[in-house]
Amino acid sequence: MPSYNDPAMPHHLVMPPAPHATDSAAWEWVHGDAAQTSQRTPGVPPATASQTSVVLIVPASALSWHRVTLPPGLLGRDGQARQAVRLRAVLESLLEDQLLDDPAQLHFALQARSADAGPCWVAVCQRAWLQGAVDAVRQAGHGLDGIVPEWAPADSATPDTLWMTGEPEDAVWTWFDADGVHQRHRSNPPPAPIRNVFAEPACAELAEQLLHREVVVQHRADRLRAAASAPWSLAQGEFTSRSHWTARATDAAKALWQAPAWRPARWALGLLAVVQLVGLNAQAWQARQALKEQRSALQDILLRTFPATTVVVDAPLQMQRAVDALGQTGGQSQARDLERLLESFGALAPANTAPQAIEFIAGELRITPPSGQETPPETVRDSLQSRGYRLRTEGTVWVLSP
Known about the structure:
This protein has nine helices and 17 strands. The chain is of the alpha+beta class. The protein folds into four domains: 169 residues, Nucleotidyltransferase, domain 5 (2-Layer Sandwich), CATH 3.30.420; 57 residues, no CATH class; 58 residues; 68 residues. A five-stranded mixed sheet has the order 3-2-1-4-8, sandwiched between helices. A hairpin with a 6-residue loop joins strand 9 and strand 10.
């Protein structure tokens, strides 16, 4: 997973309200280029004057964490599923007894770089809620660079870090260990002593009073940036988005293309497209005119040469038939005559292809070949073709025509 905490490329972080929050619940927004600041906007994610790419942070109350051991061979060497559909079916089967909702209505995200053997973490949240949050971000005009959890469990059995977040009246303790992510009300701190304690500025004094020790003040924006740079991605399955670099390149190209400085280039390309379209239409018109002139010239030749022709349908064919008719009137043999067809076939066909029957119909010689000779020899077919004749097969009959 790419790091979203790169100062060279500031990202904006947005965290939606929990699934069961009211419609007026606030979205939390952290600007990537403004240190230690965040804002809350009710109802919808905040819009900005220019397009931005954001990382969606899923609040802890929207996620449940489960430890599973996958069957061997389900994941590849890179920790990715070989078959996403099969992986989901296995996860639904393994977690069916641990989930309160129908598994078909949930979204599953597997721990990053999970080994093919041994237990691994699976994050689960409501699919419809997550889809609604993603749609809201995009409808506000933002690009989505990733989806990450607010908190993620640790592999260590003993928690070593504790946070107090929120306002003093409803502050919450949060820690994580090998059993998952834990949250309790401020009045119920974790039982075991924890080495590192962080608190947001609003509740830092309260945390020190309750724990009787000094705590480290951590601004909420810094904590959310740390969450965005953790090695966890919930953008899996149907929520798989473009890679970080692909999204960045696409957004940069789009912004560059829409910049005012590129307006002359856009006009030039538009003009070039119009010129190309007009040029293609002009060439097509010229080709149609040339074809029309050629047809008109053939018709004129036919009518001048054979004045008896009254209607021109196919000038070359009508001209050929008229020439054949003149030859027959003058006593000249034509290529369609029975004698010429028999002469050509008899001169080229071998002795073993002597026909059993012959039929002459409309300038075509229909030959019934001897038994076992359903297909004419290729040599005979090629030789007849070189003389201007075509020998084809129709069922069990050979048909010879000019």
